[in-house]
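Suppose you are handed only two things: the residues of a chain and a line of SMILES describing magnesium ion. What would the bound structure be? This form records exactly that question and the answer produced for it, so the two can be stored side by side and reused later without any lookup.

QUESTION INPUTS
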Amino acid sequence: MKKVLAFDIDQTLNELTKTPIPLEMGSILTKCLDHFEVCLISGQKFDQFIAQVVDRMPEATPEELSHLHLFVTQGTQYFRFNPKEKQWISVYDNPLTKEQVEKISNALETAAKELGYWEADQLLDGDEIIEDRHAMVAFSALGQKADAHAKHAWDPDHKKRDKIVARAKELAPEFTFEVGGTTTINANTGATKEYGMTHLLEELKVEKSDILYFGDMTQPGGNDYPVVEMGIDTITVRNNEDTSFALKGILGIL
Ligand SMILES: [Mg+2]
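ANSWER OUTPUT
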């Protein structure tokens, strides 16, 4: 008998990436909380976990929610619900190490300088191009304080940032670089689900064999594949309907 049901979110619990899960799925997950510890693990941020999943479980009581575990940004952050205070609390939050921040910052600076996109002379007083944002490093080509008009004009078609990203990836291939906002590139450790699942095992004090994991990208190269490689029992789903079918089966035999 499994103790833990763990889920990818996008295309495992919802129909389309970054959309809320169907209310029916929310109600099935709520029932699961009465029998299992339920873990969600995805590359998304905390706010997305709430909007996509937790807000779609309106019938869940505080006691039930205390069995829901949010492994945010691939488990670099872990949140649990405190039923007495009726709020989500951060159990741990693993920021980047100093060395990681340095390596990412150097890659971005070198890439931008090589390409002629290092705009230090345009910065306003006290502003910075590269900023340590705890679990990520953000590159803002004109700094944080630049006016919106200048920001919009700088790289409207992403071409400059695509080039910086491509070069930064060559310089520091172990990290993930992503274009975002108007002048921004976000970078982080590129932690995979192996990172999160390893912490899940520690935090919940369970064995791999206690877990049943649901994901849609379990093929080699897919973002759920690291879980398969760890030797955790996995159910591959094509979509939320497969997941819902499997869960109804599991709940039906209890
Ligand atoms: Mg997915």
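WHAT STANDS OUT: The chain has a mean pLDDT of 94. The domain at 4-95+191-252 is CATH 3.40.50.1000 (Rossmann fold).
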